[in-house]
Amino acid sequence: MLDSILRVEGLCKRFGAVEASNNLSFEVARGEIHALIGPNGAGKTTAINQLTGEITPDAGSIFFDGEEITHLPVHLRARKGLARSFQITAVFEHLSVEENLGLAVQAHQGHSFRFWRNVARDSSLKQLTRQAIETIGLEARAAEPAANLSHGEKRQLEVGMALASRPKLILLDEPMAGMGPGGTVKLAELIQGLKGNLSILLVEHDMDVVFSLADRITVLVYGEVIASGTVEQIRNDPLVRQAYLGEEVIDA
Amino acid sequence: MEAEGTVSGAGLIAMQNFLTRKIAVLSTCLILLLALPVIMQLLDEPYLISLSSRILIYAIAAVSLYLILGYGGMVSLGHAAFFGTGAYVVGILASASFDASPVFSWPFQMDGSERLLVALPLALLISAFAALIIGFFSLRTSGMYFIMITLAFAQMLYYFYVSLEGYGGDDGLSLYSRSQLPLLDLGDDTHFYYLCLTFLLLFLLFCHRLVNSRFGRVIQGIRENEKRMQSLGYAVFGYKLACFVIAGAGAGLAGALMANQSEFVSPGLMHWTQSGEILVMVLLGGMGTLFGPVLGAVALLSMEEILSMFTEHWMVYLGPFLILVVLFTRGGLYGLLIGRER
Lengths: 252, 342
Ligand SMILES: Nc1ncnc2c1ncn2[C@@H]1O[C@H](COP(=O)(O)OP(=O)(O)O)[C@@H](O)[C@H]1O
Ligand SMILES: [Mg+2]
Hints:
The structure holds two protein chains of two kinds. By secondary structure, chain A is an alpha/beta fold. Chain A contains nine helices and ten strands. In chain A, the strands form two sheets. In chain A, strands 6-7-8-3-9-10 form a six-stranded mixed β-sheet, with helices on both faces. In chain A, strands 2-1-4-5 form a four-stranded antiparallel β-sheet, covered by helices on one side. In chain A, β4 (59-64) and β5 (67-68) form a beta hairpin. In chain A, α4 packs across α5 (151-164). The radius of gyration of chain A is 18 Å and the shape is globular. Chain B is mostly helical. Chain B has one domain (8-338): ABC transporter involved in vitamin B12 uptake, BtuC. In chain B, α11 crosses α13 (332-338). Chain B starts with a helix and ends with a helix. In chain B, 46% of the residues are buried. Chains A and B meet through α2 and α3 of A and α7, α8 and α9 of B. The complex binds adenosine-5'-diphosphate and magnesium ion. Magnesium ion is lined by residues 44-45, 87 of chain A.
């Protein structure tokens, strides 16, 4: 029996005629990097949104850290240690990098009905925020409003905000989307460095990245899992080759 | 390296200039506000002291709206509901006290009062409660729906007070005198002015602390991206509602002072045009700082006063001016005066 941080059983979600999740089942083991791949429109983001609670599944159940969370609201799942980054960058544009990360840290330090003390001089918050800034390497941009960041820096911040809450499991929805090669390498290194400390469900397009980072891979096509296994198994799976990888060169 | 040093050096100087200018302008304003009654006495224009109190009161209302609008991103067109509620609490308590009959006698007896130390806390409490109820329902919507539903609630309250025949109904309610407070004679316009100024400064201090607190940062995060706040683990509804209630209490404070200032309350205080006027003050003053709405209140009410000396149709002149300011100075009047912070 696998020691899993996340277990998904028979998840179904339909948008009109589109079967975005079709009896979806998979598990993420504690401490692993699990990649979720599949062509555009396969239902990867829809799957993530159901895990975080932004979309309610039509059927199926989700277990996180040994507990059913299928009907828990978004913010309570986050409090339990389930964090995500968004495929479409969702940082607080008018707040500084430090304030963005500060909000992520603050969310996990009890309630925020604290009306008087200046948050900028709050040492318990400041220290963890500092660490979060260092993790993503944006020290030089800490005071900059997020709106002024480059696309790559925003993607780093996007991932950083998910990390700053020190989650047990982090769902990364195409973290490298739209990044140049340099940025991709930096972010891949960051994710590699996280390995072991927390579990990661990584949705990613770039096959090289997936094959180099992931411990195991689940392949999604038309909302259905067509294969799930180790990198080697997926590389050699005829169904995957035919249905998804197509002409891509996957020999190492 | 050297070029970088020059750039940040220039940035630092610009920042220092901005700060110096800000401190200079704000301290001048404070001195002027403190000395105003004396100046008006010297100029032999005591009527202007009373007008100034009115402006300070509206400034409190505008700052309270700015809390939810500027920091929380909640555009309410029903803010006068709380302004009017605060005023009516003072009015009803005073009228019951004058008639020597209780306001209500079940489930306990509530006697009227002309003491500010009773009326003001009650006004705050009851307008906060009104904001709790109205916010609880309106905050489930956003954008255009939120504007419409806050407007609808305020109009409902308006008609509720119109129907209160016992308290003057449509015609409103005249107060026998201003509230009583130990040491001060609120009937004296100068004393009353300093009371209003004190409340405005205290309220500004409170809001300043609030927006820079953990709570304030959460409110700004919600304005920026509510969905992201949820996925970070915040129960956003509670924070929005708390902010709405605090703003409602602020407007209630202004309303309670307003009832005293004019010694008169009427349903007109919570008409949608009142909400609109407070909203215009906020827009006119400019976003990004708590002093914006104060400036907006000063500018709008002074212009109304001055223009109405010359023409009955002052709105015809004021309207286009407002549109120009809002369109062409993105920082509002505050931005014109001090420059933009970011
Ligand atoms: N809110 C929605 N309403 C209707 N259809 C949707 C919605 N979200 C996603 N879909 C559809 O569901 C399918 C899966 O989308 P998505 O999960 O975004 O795919 P992926 O992230 O794998 O590219 C697509 O066909 C998409 O058009
Ligand atoms: Mg997607």
